[in-house]
Design goal:
CATH superfamily of the domain at 16-30 and 65-146: Hcp1-like
CATH class of the domain at 16-30 and 65-146: Mainly Beta
Strand content: 35-45%
Number of strands: 9
Oligomer: single chain
């Protein structure tokens, strides 16, 4: 009889929490932009026509896009302060939790973030959808801890 090992299922992407320095923990319905892209620089060596040398260059992080139903003013107030000239960067994290929500399985920490874009809800009197606002956070990089 064949023995079976312990099964490890992939983590589910629906139970996460966003924490931003000096703001209360926030629940979002969607988070995108957890991405890092290493730019590649090509070097064509003279006399060598069989391939092109490729070297790592700069690391690029796109903006984090956070969507949620409108519940409070904390993020808007931070964005509005920046518009008014009070520029402040904040660190934060996005924690992916286990199915029970009790334990953090993976956490991405971002640093030096500020809201660079805000989009208000699409309002339509003929629909009964949640009013969703979107924030984009520009940041200086991600680190990952956990699984």
């Amino acid at each position: 009889m064949a023995s079976t090992g312990a099964r490890t299922d992939p983590l589910l992407g629906f139970r996460f929490e966003v924490m931003i320095e000096s703001l209360p923990p926030a629940g979002f319905s969607e988070c995108t932009g957890l991405q890092a892209e290493l730019e590649v620089q090509e070097f064509r060596e003279g006399g060598l026509n069989t391939y092109v040398h490729r070297f790592p260059s700069r690391l690029r992080h796109p903006v984090l896009t956070l969507r949620r139903g409108i519940v409070d003013r904390a993020l808007w107030d931070w964005y509005d302060a920046i518009i008014q000239g009070d520029f402040s960067r904040r660190n934060g994290s996005i924690a992916l939790r286990d199915p029970t929500g009790a334990q953090t399985m993976v956490e991405w920490q971002f640093r030096g973030a500020f809201p660079s874009n805000w989009r208000g809800p699409e309002l339509n009197a003929s629909q009964s959808t949640v009013a969703v606002e979107t924030f984009e956070l520009s940041h200086e990089g991600l680190t990952r801890t956990g699984a």
